[in-house]
Amino acid sequence: MSLYPVGIIGTGKYVPERILTNQELEQMVETNDEWIVTRTGIRERRLASAEEATSDLALHASKKAIAAAGLTAEDIDLIIVATITPDMFFPSTACLLQDKLGAKKAAAFDLSAACSGFIYGLATASNMIATGMYKHVLVVGAETLSRITDYTDRNTCILFGDGAGAVVLGQVEEGRGFRSFELGADGSGGDLLKVCGGGSRVPASEASLSAKQHFIHMAGNDVFKFAVRIMGSAAEDALQKAGMTKEDINLLVPHQANIRIINSALTRLDLSEEKAMINLHKYGNMSAASIPVALAEAVEEGRVQQGDCLVLVGFGGGLTWGASVLVW
Ligand SMILES: CC(C)(COP(=O)(O)OP(=O)(O)OC[C@H]1O[C@@H](n2cnc3c(N)ncnc32)[C@H](O)[C@@H]1OP(=O)(O)O)[C@@H](O)C(=O)NCCC(=O)NCCS
User: Fold this and answer.
1) 215 with 161, same domain?
2) What distance in angstroms lies between residue 71's CA and the mean position of ligand 1's atoms?
3) What is the reported pLDDT for 4?
4) Of 175, 196, 223, which closes a domain?
């Protein structure tokens, strides 16, 4: 039961200054710019400085989102940080962020659903507001994937980057806001994309370090096939739940993993490339941060107008997926 219509009332993003180009990667592993651009669409990505951790990136993005919502940190009731690269095991990155922001009245927790984490966070937050439990929730997707990327593995190191995106959710006018969420998981595919070292199954040890188990391991081809299948179907399911059709879409904001995956979703949804927000050429795949950074940039660029129908859709490790339909 929904007491109030809930929507996004402020957006913000932050990416670190340091740019890692394809040309630099050519010096690090056996690869080349042409291969990376044709197979992925990525030209460069951002890397956090040695002093920056996930909560620092999250802080910059969150301050912008809270200001854009016309609020102060003390107005925030709950902070959800979607991340697979927390500053540390615990306390949660959300608690670290709560302190940095001075959001004294906010509860705080992290959410782990890999690249789908931001959509999972939106679904959680929007339901907490719709039922009257909270008024303003800060949802952040923030990652420093460079810290878990093996820069000697050409299969993965070309893909990932660091960044953070944040939104504030609150009550909106009738007719606007979230119309549906579609969340899913298939744990049987967990081995396809993982960091298995440093947890309770394989605690950090010299052996786990030398086996590089603290880095991302990925079966790229299998993840690619899953992504192509799920992006279109999750978006279609969310549209159906919202009682809307592909023709209603003004802007698709997809997870930014690979331009070929995005293009296959566009084909399935009969959308032209202009109807998708694409920024992966600049940032690569920032996991949970990709969708909120793309959304914040779309807002900055004036690509989102009041009344527009947006479809957000992502997939990732877990395996997980998520899609949402909202009216801006
Ligand atoms: C990783 C990915 C770009 C690889 O593209 P692909 O077209 O599937 O390429 P393949 O894995 O089939 O590899 C083709 C060849 O290129 C090679 N290759 C892999 N990475 C390379 C690189 N960076 N530069 C040059 N060659 C590379 C492979 O070793 C393989 O060589 P081989 O045929 O001699 O064995 C693609 O599979 C992908 O994007 N997968 C999804 C990844 C993803 O989205 N992960 C995050 C999910 S949130």
Assistant:
1) no
2) 44
3) 83
4) 175
